[in-house]
Amino acid sequence: xxxxxxxxxxxxxxxxxxxxxxxxxxxxxxxxxxxxxxxxxxxxxxxxxxxxxxxxxxxxxxxxxxxxxxxxxxxxxxxxxxxxxxxxxxxxxxxxxxxxxxxxxxxxxxxxxxxxxxxxxxxxxxxxxxxxxxxxxxxxxxxxxxxxxxxxxxxxxxxxxxxxxxxxxxxxxxxxxxxxxxxxxxxxxxxxxxxxxxxxxxxxxxxxxxxxxxxxxxxxxxxxxxxxxxxxxxxxxxxxxxxxxxxxxxxxxxxxxxxxxxxxxxxxxxxxxxxxxxxxxxxxxxxxxxxxxxxxx
Length: 297
What we know:
It contains 11 helices and 12 strands. By secondary structure, the protein is of the alpha/beta class.
């Protein structure tokens, strides 16, 4: 079962927000209460190889508490030892595989790695809506080697909500986009421009749109390969009926550190990094959101 346990953790490795873990419980409970053996796959963060602070053992511990039964943390996500742990499972057991992104083969959707992951299961359940758009080994590759592939209850819930929001939204329909990368949101951005009354763009991707419009973004995160697409989106919004909102002020720092000194500016100085939207932008975004009939984030 592919779940999305990319959850925030503190410096001591404790789960800071278990919302995503809680959201997966109905599907896991359905499996174990019906005598199935739940083998869970997830990523955590963006490790470059094995990273001790990004192991999934704390997640397995928190899941054990929420599920009311022991969830064993596997030593790896593939290999002979994992195969032995899977073979030792009994009906109703739950096993958390180690972070699949410890292997570069995961994001490369490597066939051999996908086959090794698939060897642990008979039925594939995708309940990781937040990762389902990426063709990785644990989301797409494994489906080539398992005959029965289904969606989990969380995936079903998200898709039903998305369908309703897109097909019959209460107006005004406001879409909020964020995250670091523009490249994995190209198709949905175009679609939202056709459907939404307002599109709010924040997060790291906002700087790519600002840069494409000629605004100084300093050393902020940029998806440079998508500057032309961002300019196209801005042009389409100007020519259409959709209001597109971008940040007009920013919280910035000279370095991306927890104790860095920050300032609020209208235009980001050269060498400075945009960290968040400023108070003026918060107010503008809040007014639009408060008036919405449907919000899709």
